[in-house]
Amino acid sequence: MTPLPPDFPNRGPAAPGTVYLVGAGPGDPELLTLRALRIIGEADVLVFDHLVSDAILSLVKPDAERIYAGKERGNHAVPQEDLNLMLVRLARQNLRVVRLKGGDPYTFGRGGEEVETLKEHGVPFEVVPGITAAAGVAAFAGIPLTHRNYAQACVFVTGHLKDGSMNLDWPGLARRRQTVIIYMGLHGLAHLCEQLIAHGLPADWPAAIVQQGTTPNQRTVTGTLATLPDLATVAGLKPPTLIIVGEVVRLKDKLSWFPEITA
Ligand code: SAH
Questions:
Q1: Which of 107, 114, 183 to mutate to test the pocket of ligand 1 (most atoms within 8 A of CB)?
Q2: 132, 150, 213, 262: least surrounded by Cβ within 10 Å?
Q3: Which residues in the chain come in under a pLDDT of 50?
Q4: How far apart are CA 95 and CA 14, in angstroms?
Q5: Is 49 marked active-site?
Q6: What domains does the chain contain, in order, with CATH numbers?
């Protein structure tokens, strides 16, 4: 472990009675931060989501309690409000509580709501950031999020369908010279591509979808706004998947390095 300058706050061991909201990164355990690795190893109780890989779960002490908090599409093992209060209860038992989330806890992770409840109840906490899916996928799929020649901006949105549609700022998303990253978008992929074309992007605008980025099951399907929905269906991709829309997708052929499965 790297020696840390003594003036960094919160660098000590995990404290009993504290909740650590920790980002587990996109899958590859070597993408954990040093802080996450240390805190996970010191946890008395681990509350984790389905996106957290087994390799990362194996880092907890053998006698640590593990609580699965779910969060698959349509299958929430523990409702969010109960989960927030469970963290409070566990901390009050003087345990070192680690709330482990896929990617980064403050990027589509509802980390803010959990911390709000901890604050309201006066429970001490720390947030340990993680590599969010967009950053992990960009690196491992060879698709930079920005690029001097293609994209000067990058927008992260959720493609989660509410009442069968996505409530997004379509004119803002259907712009050239930017990259749009869609989390939780597999189910709404056809709708998403349709709307981006309807709001002005060309039908042959590059788009990609990456399955289980940074893991041995990583697989990328590339196409255009017109073709990607059918290509993704034929490929039978498995979640989690991340969608990338923009001209940076063209760089994949040149920049990819990580071995992917092909079917
Ligand atoms: N807090 C997480 C995101 C949680 S939302 C983060 O910062 O990454 C869950 C969505 O994240 C999934 O539906 C998927 O769109 C995306 N995602 C998470 N891990 C991924 C991975 N390894 N590969 C592709 N997409 C991933």
A1: 183
A2: 262
A3: none
A4: 10
A5: yes
A6: 18-128 (3.40.1010.10), 133-255 (3.30.950.10)
Residue type, 239: P
Q: CA 218 to CA 259: how far, in whole Å?
A: 8
pLDDT of 79: 86
The neighbour count for residue 106, using CB atoms within 10 Å, is 17
- Edge-to-edge strand ranges of the sheet holding 219-224: 153-158, 178-183, 241-245, 206-211, 219-224
pTM, two decimal places = 0.95
Q: Is 101 a catalytic residue?
A: no
Residue nearest to atom 5 of ligand 1 (CA): 108
CB of 81 closer than 8 Å to CB of 30: no
Contacts of 245 (CB under 8 A, 6+ apart): 179, 180, 181, 182, 196, 201, 205, 206, 207, 225
Question: Do 111 and 35 meet the contact criterion of CB atoms below 8 Å apart?
Answer: no
- Tell me the residue type at 44: D
Distance between CA atoms of residues 55 and 156, nearest Å: 27
pLDDT tens digits, one per residue of 92-148: 999 999 999 999 999 998 999 999 999 999 999 999 999 999 999 999 999 999 999
What tokens were used for 208? 């990609």
